Queue: 4 jobs
Job 1
Amino acid sequence: MPPLSGKVAIVTGSSRGIGRAIAMRLAADGGTVMLTATNAEALQEVQAGIEAAGGRASSMALDLRRPEAASELVQVTLQRHGGIDIVVNNAGATKRGDFMDLTDEDWMDGFALKFFGMVRLLRAAWSQLKERRGAVVNIAGIGGRTPGPQFTIGGSVNAGMLSFTKAMADLGVRDGVQVNAINPGAIRTARLSKRLEALAKEREISLAEAEAQMVAETATTRVGEPQDVANLVAYLVAPGNRFLHGALVDLDGGATKSL
């Protein structure tokens, strides 16, 4: 029997990139996946792909920046699927740039989706997770451990997510809910592609050369793939891995050098 047979998972930001890969993997492992992001058409494509592979999924387009959106998502998930066993908080992109150029609106938007969207969704889903002894995985990022001048918003948001994960893990001990976080490094997404394109243009080199230089300069094994993150999420939420709790796992090819 598949490891997630009978389990219902919410995956936020699941219309593309890391979230899409996570949703596809959890469905392949037997879970029923509630997909959510702002782009309804892209969500339908992911859902169709899951169903074509024999999996089960449904989707709901919404913006988790809205204070009411998390509760709406939980209510619809319960109506369609009868419960919630897994929540993967993946939604959220934060603006990069020089600190002096970033506005209050940039900062508020960075926290609104990635941080407060996560907080509200767990508040709304916690009673279900407690009842069903569920699992939570928060997708943060290595910027929360190793801040940089171009990533002041993202680093701050990710650091907040890591602290929140540790706090919720303590609550999870009491309530029987497994809580962990993953810190992805450089993953091959649309955002990374733009960074590589900018680097290639700046240095007048090919994209392949730009990627090779990025890997060399960060002293990492390679650029990560969305499937790398999906594989780790699947491991974390598998029933046999419940002792892994309150962990902040760096998935970055060795980019994080600190203890």
Note: DSSP finds nine helices and seven strands in the chain.
Job 2
Amino acid sequence: MVYVAICDDETKIGAELECTLIDIFRKLNIKHEIDVFFSGHELCKKMEDGAHYDLIFLDIKFAKNEIDGVEAGRLIRDVHQNHLAAIVYISWETKYALELFDIQPLNFLVKPLNNEKIEDVVRRYLKVSGLWSGVFAYKIGHDTIKVQVRDIVYLESCDRKLVLHLADGKKEEFYGSIKTAYEEQQSGSTSCLSTVPMRLIMPM
């Protein structure tokens, strides 16, 4: 599960970012929860009360009389002693690089936000955090099923069928060959079978 916070006082941008993230996490088959905040005070208060976030999208400039994203980042790092949350700053301007150095953000996205760059950031976070090692997709009938590569023990080929052995003890059978499955994974956006042990059982 990835716990995400979006903090931006522009409600339209916050809503659009939330929808984009939901689509990305569903595409990657990652369980997630997203909270949206409209002020740095609100986010910091929630964290002070015990809320945990793995990935935080944080605007830099808020309305007057409001702490800005740089201050909020320092509160998260220094006051709450949270050095594990990945912070992604978002802003209309690019002039804040030096101010953000000591906060060690994961990335900086410039508005208007680009969906591809948002997905790149999410993928980078998942890889850095070790939560994601790729997705293996296969078909049963007309349905496409996706599982995390880390949940696969091994893939077994038996006659014209493939048997997927999962970490929870379950097995999934579907028609195909290891060669075809490997080529499809390498040519698609999901990856990668190269890390999955494979067994070939010859028919009697």
Note: The longest strand covers residues 152-158.
Job 3
Amino acid sequence: MVQACRRLARGPSDDGSVLLDGDHLLDEAVRARVTIRTLLTDRPDSPLARRVGGSGAQVYEGSRDAIQAASPVRTPSGSVAIAEWAPVALDRVWSKSPALVLALIDVQDPGNLGAIIRSADALGATGVVTTPGGADPAGWKALRGAMGSTFHVPVARAPLTEIISHARSRKIRIGATTSATGEPLHRASLVEPLLILLGNEGAGLDETVTGAADVALRIPMKRGANSLNVGAAAALLVYEATRQRDARLQQV
């Protein structure tokens, strides 16, 4: 199992195997009924290990050295597992209404990707889509960064043209984030079904992408500041959209 974990640490496999490191992430996977294939732990009699074993997984007791070798993190928690997970079909991200979907265009840092998925789940987004040119949501760093939210909010992976085509066919408004121009976030209407495009850490969104959107969205910042981390921007966007939608419901 150690060798299998080390292979998955280099990247997800084609058969849907993913690497989960840490008790919290493993617990969230069990809660979401994700299939756990194998678990390597130094606490085989713990309640979590018993739950994993009860779900049909093989549970192996490992020494500290074995777990250190299997885990990709510097300070392992004592639990490393191989599970089954893959991005959902693009249709799934539109399944809840009104849609509030984040599309991450070539976001490179798996930690940023994981944080965005975590914020999307916590703050009320209905789905997240990533493009193939960015970090893989099935990678161990992205899964760890999402802290289990990957298993609770639909996460898909598709080319940008396909994402936009899906949104257009469903009459979903498309918003593109900008740093200098665009409608201030608190003044924009975010209550209707919405797809929000966010660019990557270095280049942001290409002008052809922002030009194809229905509305350009800008997060107001103090003079001299011109950008935010993409994870922080995503959290603010989802928070404001959810706030507006909740306020609209209270008026009905």
Note: The chain has two domains: 2-84, 90-251.
Job 4
Amino acid sequence: MQPRSGAAPSIMAPAPNVDEPTPVSGSETAVLAGGCFWGVQGVYAHVKGVTEAESGYAGGDRATASYETVSTGSTGHAESVRITYDPSQVTYGQLLQIFFSVVQDPTELNRQGPDEGTQYRSAIFAQDATQQRVAQSYIDQLTQAGVFPGPIVTSVVPPKAAFFPAERYHQDFLNSNPSFPYIATFDMPKLDSLKQLFPAQYRDQPTLVLADGR
């Protein structure tokens, strides 16, 4: 384990033994929840092959998909990030490897770092049966290998949960506020770990949600 100032420890998780087949062309979507979406979005925005990483909410209904309501912890939503990616450049399995290595601590139940509540839970919202199979296989692989010091509590949600984009002011928050105390303490170290552990997947210029004027 490698300590990170203020953040959960990073660890180089092994590559998945099972991954999705690579399509000839097109883009795909992954939805991951690993604590405050600022840091999750900030990391994946710097991953080669990711064309968009958008903060939002998954696991609950449209009517409760707002920051104030989700923050009560009673909506079923988790702060999540919808990742649109080119699978010919980065696979679903590689996104999961980054997720378990640097994005979050999969042994923390209903919390990440200083944030507590079900809205900060670790979850993989599978978009289809293949993603569900790859994700569950990877968790089983990591468990059998004893990669983490405690049980993995990351849930794999079947392909049924809708994703609802978060408010505009949450988008690209890490990129816009790198010196914000929370970001500097808990999220910038994750970006440093991405660059160190996954140099081939890291890109210096992030993809930004608000770059298109939204």
Note: Confidence is low (pLDDT under 50) at residues 1-5.
